[in-house]
User: What shape does this take?
Amino acid sequence: MRINCPLCGTRDRREFTYYGDAVYANRPAEGAPIEAWDDYLHLRDNPAGETRDLWYHELGCSAWIEVTRNTVTHEISATRLLTDRKKPAKRGKKT
Amino acid sequence: MRIAGKGLIDRAKTVGFRFDGKDYTGFEGDTLASALLASDVKVFGRSFKYHRPRGVMTAGSEEPNALVTVGKGAAQVPNVRATVQEIHDGLEARGQNAWPSVNMDVMAVNDLFAPFFSAGFYYKTFMWPRAFWEKLYEPAIRRAAGLGALSGKHNDESYEKAWAHCDLLIIGSGPAGLMAALTAARAGAEVILAEEDHRMGGRCLSETFEIAGKPAADWAAGIVAELDAMPNVRLMTRTTVTGAYDDGTYGALERVGLHVANPPKDLPRECFWRIVAKRAVLASGAHERQIAFSNNDRPGIMTAGAVRAYLNRWGVAPGHAVTIFANNDDAHRTARDLSAAGVRIAALIDVREDVEVAGDFPVYAGYRIIDTVGRKGLRDVVIADKSGQISRIVSDCLAVSGGWNPALHLTCHMNGRPVWREDIAAFVPKPGMVPGLEAAGSANGAFSTRACLAQGVAAAEAALEALGRKPKKVDMPEAEDGAVRMRAYWEVPEPKHRAWLDFANDVTTKDVRLAAQENFRSVEHMKRYTTQGMAPDQGKNSNVAALAILADATGRGIPETGTTTFRPPYTPVSIAAMGAGGQGAGFAPQRFTTSDKAARERGAPMIEAGLWYRPSYFPRPGEKTWRDSCDREVMMVRDRVGICDVSTLGKIDLQGKDTARFLDLVYTNTFSTLKPGRVRYGLMLREDGLIMDDGTTACLAEGHYLMTTTTAAAGQVMRHLEFVQQAHCPGWDVRMISVTEQWAQFAVAGPLARELLNSVLETPIDVTTPPFLGVTDVRLMDVNARLFRISFSGELGYEIAVPARYGEALYRDLVARAESLGGGAYGMEALNVLRIEKGFITHAEIHGRVTAFDIGMEGMISGKKDCIGKGASQRPGLVGPEREQLVGLRPIPMSRQIGAGAHLFNEGADPVRVNDQGYVTSVGYSPVLKTYLGLAFLKNGRARHGERIRLVDHLRGTDVICEVMNPVFFDPEGGRARA
Amino acid sequence: MRYSGFRVISEGFFGNKGWTPAWRDPDPKPEYEVVIIGGGGHGLSTAYYLAKNHGITNIAVLEKGYLGGGNVGRNTTIVRANYFLPGNQEFYSHSLKLWEGLEADLNYNVMHSQRGLINLFHSDGQRDAFARRGNAMINQGDDAELLDREGVRRHLPYLDFEQTRFPIYGGLLHRRGGSARHDAVAWGYARGADQRGVDLIQNCEVTGIDIVDGRVTGVQTTRGAIKAKKVGIIVAGRSGQVAAMAGMRLPVESHILQAFVTEGLKPVIDHVVSFGMGHFYISQSDKGGLVFGGDLDFYSSYAARGNLPMVEHVMEAGMTLMPMIGKAKVLRSWGGIMDMTPDGSPIIDKTDVGGLYIDCGWNYGGFKAVPASGWCMAHLMATGDSHEYARRFRLNRFVTGHLLDEEGTGSQHNLH
Assistant: This one.
């Protein structure tokens, strides 16, 4: 399994650490009710299909990457840096 | 027997080997199977359940019967396929699952009780009396189970793992694979051609047909030679591709040294490859099927294609009077080839009445085999025509063919299922089930040589197009293009005796029918109930037939009944190969500090702290136990001065205008008020509100901070900080980097610490420079260093940090100075006691389920700002008197010993779960206070200081009353560190 | 039909033609009192105990594939009661007691073998943590012994004591821990439930849950609509998908766990051995294969298959711990879909929809829980109240903070 790090290029899965769903990147604001934290920390759509999750290029450039991935086929269709979230995700797979 | 003039073996090179204690010879190129068959050996092993004598059935890795043990002692390998193992001088092999030998096995008595050992019988019995299951039944079952045995000894032979990358991976080097390789290679693609056998060519090596006007084997050799000369081609023989994984990753096992006599020590036995291929072609051929009939498992009963292989490739006729039993025309070639080589054909029996066979041997069209005779080797074959008229044929080798199954397993490794083709009565791959992998040739259900050649070319051309390469024209060689003529035939109806399906697990047609009778109707249920398909051949020889029988028994068609799943590995792979590099210390990195050498020189036993090695204590002459040393080191630090290497703690350098603000976010307490030159203790929560880590962070200059973490959590904190910055603060001016390994850092602790440092620093320090919880740049011996005034021991303490390359020298120097002042080096045991005396926590206390409230630090969560974890930390279950809170414990009387892991109960309460009040996390003997001290978590502990609590450790037989108290046992005002 | 050795012998004399179906194959009725979605270990045991303990038999178990085809059919078969948090302790203790009487209860040999489980530790700190656990086990009334290095060597002489990367300090021995034949458990409960009148409906996939005025009224399936007053969702890794049919989101993330079996070998490993530093656990089945596994692949997945990095890590762990298994050949690898929760502990609870219950979140420890899970889920569905032993397995414990985090790794689903 390989992931296209936007900074380093296509690297093997072994260089990355998985965190979880991309919702982790949107933490509730200060003073948010506990239900918001419950939702953020615990509840998950958990789709059988396309999902977006967060990977850390731990053995590479330390970038946090949002990966668009299919949980049934494992196919990765897009990756982008967490810090680039305002820009659209880079589509298309390398061959 | 050996046939002159046949075979691709090298008759000039004889090889001596041993099987079951007897010496044999063969030729280079022989497998154990071919060499033993040439010597007329019939019985190779005993079947799993019934211990029936069994012989070689096939000529490939799918072999279900001839599993032998090779080698002796620690090098012993069980379950080796005799059909794959190449012989070499000195090879020693023996049969398995039999005692005293495969020829004479006492366990054959099981066969007499067969009616009681039907499928699933063990689920219906062995239940009574209850105690008998574990004492009698199960041990007996376990002894009877399994085929080969491990030696139980460690083995130091070398195994390797490797990576390979290519444009096109071709799996299999028969006609389809060779043409695919040629097509791709000539177009300039980077090609890997992997072949399971030790020689390339696939079926070309075993058949007498011609390709391009020459014997197939010669044609293949020519193609291989051309490929070998091309720099963009890697030929890998003895390499089985075992699994297909995501993104064009394939696992493969190469048998590197298993065929070598007296291999050099560093020659790996096997190499596990990870091959990353942009595209792949599966040209793995097909496996021939048996037909089920009474006693179809005797030694001497083989597949028709295997008999041809033994004849044409190895020059061996597995019998003197050979019978063929088939449902298809392909099998007739066995009769013709043997006949042409001078071997007598006893009979060719074809179930099809209307078949026409050319050949000078007896043909029985429309007949079927109803029994065989010859327990230790086939003697007679009993046949019947459709009217029931019985004849007996004298025969010592029976070549059976029920058709062929494409070897499509890899195409189904990623949740795919194959499709049924009625015309060949076989499953074929469904395209596209593994992205980038296409099947070609027999693996794809094409059975004529011409079709295989053409499909190989087509598959390569499709791959080239996907790779953006132009194919060059490849001439299609002339080859036979016969149509498949067969009639699906799975079993001879109503067998009088057991008709075998799964030879390796001893599963019969009756077993499959019994499964259906008991409503185990789905193919998965049938498989698990009967164990068909679960043996070493993983159903390669029985799956389709068993499926057909099940379909018949349940009134469904084969496609409707379905198949079970296919999983890696395609053929079994040794754990040593897939785990190459993991043995011994190789399993995980070893991290050493700069003082490691000096510590070991002083005789310090080293202990693991995560991946690091740290000294436990430094024994001095006269000290008999670790306690002697530990007690002395604690007093040494409290009274004089001690040196301890603390480099393993995480160190993270943070810089940028927004760093202060960032630290305020990740820590519970405020760091933006920390001035340059100051250090502050910080508590870090996970976002779920529980403690992640604690440590100190120093402000080195405006916008420049150095954070420390615990040794254990360094990686986790780094990952966390990067996440917070990139996810939550992407526009902020803050960057961080781990500098744990860049700085060697040593604690200098004790009343004489300042005196010691002043003997080595260029500029002297005093009580205010640096102040307690301060940091300053210093210089010593021409090296710039940082000096932190922090204390984990509770004594006057400093930590001095130098660039790591100076670590060893500085450590030795500091220890020498300490010793001259009556102190010295101290290790982890003393470090632990010192911090327990002061009530300082480690990850023994903050074990991941602990909150700031639990350790009495809820006040450190600033009310004035947000921080990671603040929101979730306020959940009702994380605060309140029900929580277990940090307390100190001291045994009553003080002479009693306590240990960590004990639980706490109210005095007089039974030590059972419902009365559980808490548990002890850390214990040390305090030579200062002359008592054991413990840190513990006790329900509502802070309100219970002064109470008596019962400490019970069932495991070590301890039951002690303790006093609950403030965990800061020694110097509660903290004056000593501020001296 | 009652199973026994006597029966095996007598049937053997008559060509085994007398064996009757292990369970019926009924068509689904239009209505039941209880519908259980999921014919795995927990679903089947729930149906069994609803019938046995509560006299409720008008039940349909709806299984989308074949009975026991999910995680119960592809695990490493370990049975143990060595949890240390109150809330978990009593549950698994109860489960182990049920295991000990299971064969007699079900009249089916589940081959429960209490051969002993040893958790190895490699530092003083780990030893202390295991001491806490062992004492908790004894407080609960279960068994535990602390072994030192020589004690481990006596039980497990084949471990690499000299060169292994993480030296063996000792181990926690749980004598009543061991293993069982996974398929047999599913089939035993299936047969037992069927004998008591429960309808086991295979090849029946639930496609919708009908809810009217906040109460469940039935389900839609590929074999028609079925009405029911009570519905239990017991589908492990697919919990999120089925709960979504009721408009629910769960604190569950589905992950892939791989496991492995070698070719059959003569007995060589008599215990269940757990090697925490390597995330590796191994035992030997009664068929002779070494059954072992390790950690999740760590990325969320419904593929039920994994990739090589974790395969290799597991093999490497085996080699550093017990290199003598190196010559054994892995015969098959497989993967399942694990329902991971933020604290690694399960959920047996009602939902906000009246009559709708859920049993999920077993992470990768569901096999040992099969008996107690069914027992407690049946109690909940029959009485409307949590069973005493499962009272902390609430859906809302995450929002209230009453967590059951055995690993101590916090609310990240894949760290349990």
Chain C has eleven helices and 18 strands. The mean pLDDT of chain C is 97. Chain C touches chain B through 123 residues (CB under 8 Å). The radius of gyration of chain C is 21 Å.
